[in-house]
């Protein structure tokens, strides 16, 4: 049979690898800065775009989509060409994929610190960037599927299955979770509200972990681990079971992030059931990866690439054991909202994603530059620094999580809370935050060691060139042969394989989400719950802009300890006008669902200006720019109209009178602030300073802080009593 010659595109792989390293340093550096902010909360004092609330989503997006995302593309582009014996379908699509993805990352790096965010976990980017993501992702899928269709290798290896499932599922998740109605170029409101928004978000959020941080990396594991060990995959049959059971079960597990919340019980229980089942396929993949090294363990002692792979697969096993365990209601009651979750997430991110990426880089760079790794010793130094960093990061966070949960739930003999002041918990876990910062420092130092090693390796090699290869053209086979097993036939039918994978991932989402959206009895309404006033709506948008949801939850669970500490537990009907929902994932500070009326307007003013003045020992940074900045009211009517278009019952008259309403409510809050003589003195001094220096003076009633106070004072006030709450099911 005549062989055809062609060239593998190595340059695109090199580009994605370099982007992986660069953005990895950026994402990790921001994460390290955030870790030190827990210890030195005023380290960026007064700089709005460097505040914790704005940088946290930048950190998560940079690590997930910039670092891990570029690593996925590098590994997929390298392995796909060799598994299919074909150059990528289109060089132009490859370049669009690369530069488009970098443009998205830069857009995220600009908009998130400026406060343009939807606040939805791992999906914070606003609607124009969401559209860019969808377009570039489709380009990637087009290139991948086009390469599959022009392949010279009939059989589709297991890694390709995972790549296809990743493409399809991430597209579905991203598009449906990002549905929103724009107000303007950089502001939108979610198409879903309250409980429905929470379910769709965690259907996306959990499966972003599943299908962006897991399935593509499993594909990379199935390619690079056998290559590095020079051994075949342990079990072909296990890989089949692993693939189909994982992609089918994973998609159901999202509701385990919402246990004991206002989500309907049936959805919570479905999430728990499938999360427990998820342990089996996850560990099947881990076992398949580790047992691939049978007969090659002596090589692990000397090869840093295999060292990184072993710890990565082990980290995957630990994280995927912990996930189902955390979905058990009795365990979730302890762990949720605590630093335990932070430890769990980072075992997966630092060990599984980070170490697999590092191992892949150490394997690829010498081959791309046609040379040997500059220093095996430095690679081993990186390995031990990274491993120690993971341990020093994760273990203190586990301890902190247990300590938080224990302290929150302690009672005195008379039934009062033993630790009534939330800050007592924060003070107690400060040593753990120090250890986390040290662990993170070790991890990033190891990364810099790798960068030096990679640069020296590249300099000692030759320029990256496309690689010559040859293979016979694929003769188009047809029907299933007699005696041929179904899956063997399926592995040479990419279209059928993709269709079946799509069906597998759609079932769980359809069963969970459609009833929650369409069956109104799932979301009972409460007659006393009304839409936000115009000023409260603006204040809520400021709350979102400043990333307050990153530290404060708005979800009181039905536990004695939480009801005693925060007030009446949350009801589904309370959130029907919340677009997006703001239930939160972590309590660095106390829950705010019932904070309305608990403190005076002046207390909130002082708390935002100098948290230590109202809460001794607080690690919350100050938000002084809210006190100084004028509230932008120019788009309030557009915001209300957009909300009305989404079903919030704002009348035309309310929208027309928005400015007058804001002025009246702002004036009332300003009057309340005047009741404090110290406030009046400072305010008059501010006014005098503006007049002396010919500066525009903004009255307090028109400043951002007043809108935020209006929102905070509204929270929870629609629920007046603890028992016999009036609730009616909407028809």
Automatic annotation (TrEMBL):
<keyword id="KW-0349">Heme</keyword>
<keyword id="KW-0408">Iron</keyword>
<keyword id="KW-1133">Transmembrane helix</keyword>
<feature type="transmembrane region" description="Helical">
    <location>
        <begin position="236"/>
        <end position="253"/>
    </location>
</feature>
<feature type="transmembrane region" description="Helical">
    <location>
        <begin position="377"/>
        <end position="399"/>
    </location>
</feature>
<dbReference type="InterPro" id="IPR009056">
    <property type="entry name" value="Cyt_c-like_dom"/>
</dbReference>
<dbReference type="Pfam" id="PF02433">
    <property type="entry name" value="FixO"/>
</dbReference>
<feature type="transmembrane region" description="Helical">
    <location>
        <begin position="433"/>
        <end position="455"/>
    </location>
</feature>
<dbReference type="InterPro" id="IPR004677">
    <property type="entry name" value="Cyt_c_oxidase_cbb3_su1"/>
</dbReference>
<keyword id="KW-0472">Membrane</keyword>
<dbReference type="InterPro" id="IPR023615">
    <property type="entry name" value="Cyt_c_Oxase_su1_BS"/>
</dbReference>
<keyword id="KW-1278">Translocase</keyword>
<feature type="transmembrane region" description="Helical">
    <location>
        <begin position="305"/>
        <end position="321"/>
    </location>
</feature>
<feature type="transmembrane region" description="Helical">
    <location>
        <begin position="497"/>
        <end position="518"/>
    </location>
</feature>
<keyword id="KW-0479">Metal-binding</keyword>
<dbReference type="InterPro" id="IPR036909">
    <property type="entry name" value="Cyt_c-like_dom_sf"/>
</dbReference>
<comment type="pathway">
    <text>Energy metabolism; oxidative phosphorylation.</text>
</comment>
<feature type="transmembrane region" description="Helical">
    <location>
        <begin position="273"/>
        <end position="293"/>
    </location>
</feature>
<feature type="domain" description="Cytochrome oxidase subunit I profile">
    <location>
        <begin position="16"/>
        <end position="465"/>
    </location>
</feature>
<comment type="similarity">
    <text>Belongs to the heme-copper respiratory oxidase family.</text>
</comment>
<feature type="transmembrane region" description="Helical">
    <location>
        <begin position="60"/>
        <end position="78"/>
    </location>
</feature>
<dbReference type="InterPro" id="IPR003468">
    <property type="entry name" value="Cyt_c_oxidase_monohaem-su/FixO"/>
</dbReference>
<feature type="transmembrane region" description="Helical">
    <location>
        <begin position="156"/>
        <end position="183"/>
    </location>
</feature>
<keyword id="KW-1003">Cell membrane</keyword>
<feature type="transmembrane region" description="Helical">
    <location>
        <begin position="203"/>
        <end position="224"/>
    </location>
</feature>
<protein>
    <recommendedName>
        <fullName>cytochrome-c oxidase</fullName>
        <ecNumber>7.1.1.9</ecNumber>
    </recommendedName>
</protein>
<dbReference type="InterPro" id="IPR023616">
    <property type="entry name" value="Cyt_c_oxase-like_su1_dom"/>
</dbReference>
<keyword id="KW-0679">Respiratory chain</keyword>
<feature type="domain" description="Cytochrome c">
    <location>
        <begin position="534"/>
        <end position="666"/>
    </location>
</feature>
<feature type="transmembrane region" description="Helical">
    <location>
        <begin position="128"/>
        <end position="149"/>
    </location>
</feature>
<feature type="transmembrane region" description="Helical">
    <location>
        <begin position="12"/>
        <end position="40"/>
    </location>
</feature>
<dbReference type="Pfam" id="PF00115">
    <property type="entry name" value="COX1"/>
</dbReference>
<dbReference type="InterPro" id="IPR036927">
    <property type="entry name" value="Cyt_c_oxase-like_su1_sf"/>
</dbReference>
<keyword id="KW-0813">Transport</keyword>
<keyword id="KW-0812">Transmembrane</keyword>
<feature type="transmembrane region" description="Helical">
    <location>
        <begin position="341"/>
        <end position="365"/>
    </location>
</feature>
<keyword id="KW-0249">Electron transport</keyword>
<keyword id="KW-0186">Copper</keyword>
<dbReference type="InterPro" id="IPR000883">
    <property type="entry name" value="Cyt_C_Oxase_1"/>
</dbReference>
<feature type="transmembrane region" description="Helical">
    <location>
        <begin position="98"/>
        <end position="116"/>
    </location>
</feature>
